[in-house]
């Protein structure tokens, strides 16, 4: 297709280590023009960062997946389709899309290719930056609440979300409220204002089921605060064994605990950590079946399906029930490689109040 350059600007990871040592920005990277029959080429307008991005950067996941260097990082993407493979059915040139590239080519580049199954049409009411803030974290929470749990979260469900100010937590609160659930959540006091931006009435007491109940985890243990209140679900976006321990105090008989982090939220995935994680999972699965309370334990990882992104668009974003919360938009056209460093370092700090976005091109 005419108008597509032969080279592009892209971030490149040259090895494992500190972001300032192994991440560079080049303007002579070949555009991935060769497409399989089911791939599309996307002109990237915006991308966002997730913890998995810097865990692949520092080598945390090197035991699980070895990267080939140089590697273009980035998972979440929003952009415009500029070329399609011979057997692509769902898109045509000019479509505005969003998605999560998974383990394929990265999104921190002016152009990126991906199988059409990883992308969906972008919500019409979202900007490119807002759309890039959605895929990985929102789809993770969508699957956790609505496809991995049985029964799923619905009207009248009582759910406690550990880490309501995390990106996954912010989406989980909105998704749960959208279907009529009663929601409590933990976060630090400094993030109460962030949760108030979601637009729900909030309270530090649990007296009104229609309010979003906020618990400062620095001051209160939710297991003691909500002991015996028969919650249907605890959704853990923080990690650590204490979440599971406290959850057992508040879950009803046959209640469900689902985590996207597990116990080892900060450690590298060493053989020892992997063995410990598997051991803990087996132990908790055993007691979820044979324990007197029968509390279900689920370790959830994302199973990407474009149908989820389509449903999020039509049922939650385009009707205003869910919205992205953005902390900062970084622009490498203005700040060069420093924008990448700042993006990674703020994500690693854990201080972001919403999603961190990398702007790559203006919206047309």
From TrEMBL:
<dbReference type="GO" id="GO:0016491">
    <property type="term" value="F:oxidoreductase activity"/>
</dbReference>
<dbReference type="InterPro" id="IPR013154">
    <property type="entry name" value="ADH-like_N"/>
</dbReference>
<protein>
    <recommendedName>
        <fullName>Enoyl reductase (ER) domain-containing protein</fullName>
    </recommendedName>
</protein>
<dbReference type="InterPro" id="IPR020843">
    <property type="entry name" value="ER"/>
</dbReference>
<dbReference type="InterPro" id="IPR036291">
    <property type="entry name" value="NAD(P)-bd_dom_sf"/>
</dbReference>
<feature type="domain" description="Enoyl reductase (ER)">
    <location>
        <begin position="17"/>
        <end position="358"/>
    </location>
</feature>
<dbReference type="InterPro" id="IPR050700">
    <property type="entry name" value="YIM1/Zinc_Alcohol_DH_Fams"/>
</dbReference>
<dbReference type="Pfam" id="PF13602">
    <property type="entry name" value="ADH_zinc_N_2"/>
</dbReference>
<dbReference type="InterPro" id="IPR011032">
    <property type="entry name" value="GroES-like_sf"/>
</dbReference>
<dbReference type="Pfam" id="PF08240">
    <property type="entry name" value="ADH_N"/>
</dbReference>
């Amino acid at each position: 297709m005419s108008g597509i350059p032969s080279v592009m600007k892209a971030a490149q990871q040259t090895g494992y280590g500190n972001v300032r040592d192994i991440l560079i920005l080049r303007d002579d990277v070949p555009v991935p023009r060769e497409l399989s029959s089911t791939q599309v080429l996307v002109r990237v307008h915006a991308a966002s960062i997730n913890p998995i991005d810097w865990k692949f950067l520092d080598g945390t996941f090197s035991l699980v997946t070895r990267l080939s260097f140089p590697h273009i990082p980035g998972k979440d993407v929003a952009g415009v389709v500029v070329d399609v493979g011979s057997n692509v059915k769902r898109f045509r040139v000019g479509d505005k899309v969003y998605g999560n590239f998974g383990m394929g080519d990265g999104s921190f580049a002016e152009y990126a290719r991906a199988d059409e199954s990883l992308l969906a049409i972008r919500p019409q009411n979202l900007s490119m930056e807002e759309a890039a803030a959605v895929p990985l974290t929102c789809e993770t929470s969508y699957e956790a609440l609505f496809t991995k749990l049985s029964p799923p979260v619905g009207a009248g469900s009582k759910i406690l979300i550990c880490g309501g100010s995390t990106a996954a937590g912010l989406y989980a609160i909105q998704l749960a409220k959208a279907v009529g659930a009663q929601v409590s959540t933990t976060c630090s006091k400094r993030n109460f204002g962030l949760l108030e931006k979601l637009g729900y009435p909030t309270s530090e007491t649990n007296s009104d089921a229609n309010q979003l109940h906020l618990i400062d985890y620095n001051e209160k243990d939710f297991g003691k605060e909500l002991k015996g209140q028969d919650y249907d679900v605890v959704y853990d976006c923080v990690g650590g064994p204490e979440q599971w321990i406290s959850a057992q105090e508040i879950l009803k008989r046959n209640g469900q605990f689902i985590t996207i982090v597990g116990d080892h939220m900060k450690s590298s995935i060493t053989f020892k950590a992997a063995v410990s994680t598997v051991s803990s999972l087996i132990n908790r699965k055993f007691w979820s079946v044979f324990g007197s309370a029968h509390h279900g334990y689920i370790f959830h990882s994302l199973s990407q399906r474009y149908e989820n992104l389509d449903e999020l668009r039509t049922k939650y974003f385009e009707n205003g029930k869910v919205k992205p919360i953005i902390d900062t938009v970084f622009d490498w056209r203005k700040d060069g490689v420093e924008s990448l460093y700042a993006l990674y370092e703020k994500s690693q700090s854990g201080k972001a109040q919403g999603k961190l976005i990398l702007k790559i091109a203006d919206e047309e």
